[in-house]
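User: structure tokens for Sterol desaturase, please.
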Amino acid sequence: MLGNEVVIRLGVFTGILCVMILAEAAAPRRDQRYTRRQRWPHNLLMVVVDTLVVRLLFPVAAVGAAVMANEQAWGLLNLANLPVWLSVLLGTIALDLAIYFQHRIFHAVPWLWRLHRMHHADLEFDVTTGLRFHPLEIVLSMAIKITVVVALGAPAIAVLIFEVILNATSMFNHGNVRLPQGLEQKLRRLVVTPDMHRVHHSIVPEETNSNFGFNLPWWDRFFGTYRDKPAAGHIGMVIGIEDFREPRDLRLDQMLIQPFRSTYRRP
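Assistant: Done. Predicted tokens:
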């Protein structure tokens, strides 16, 4: 499986992206004021920039760090000598918990919010929003992830599974797609759904600071950050943040310089 890492990542990414594009066209949750032509080229180009930056700065990345930790017997799971299947399961869940807390920290610390707010500044909410992160945030996130992987001693296969699932669920839970209400309520017991995560992209600060989970929905309920729905409803809610609401802010060049712009307000 590790030998086909690139094929697996690219295949899952392409497959989920195509499925979500079709689902959004067939059953959109909200009408969009800003067109795909205005937003999608820039959001997708950001994926290219992020990928190039990560490949340049982290040649082995998190999976490589896991292989090294396993060879050196570093980390809690390597010391515990657990069955492989249990180490993979615990490693995947622990990494998801780490991402939950990382997300909360990026909202709470002012200079980290400067990096993360670009993700929230999208004026619409759809599958490409789940791919729109500033390169500096991606670099810092990768450094944090590598540190957690080594400290945890997560198996390399667990890291690959986690990263593939995280990428897939990020596209899914940012989807502008309408799910049957009964199915949506059942799904959010197991995974973060679009209706659950959309609340997190509300312009209302109390709603922005809720529903931090990307993959597993349990952490928000356990740590008291869960919010069932936006006060204005999913159709009436306003997406984004107050500071960047001009169409030009959707451009790639403006997204890249956004952390350095003087307008600065935490939610």
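User: Anything notable?

Assistant: Residues 76 and 152 are 5 Å apart (CA to CA).
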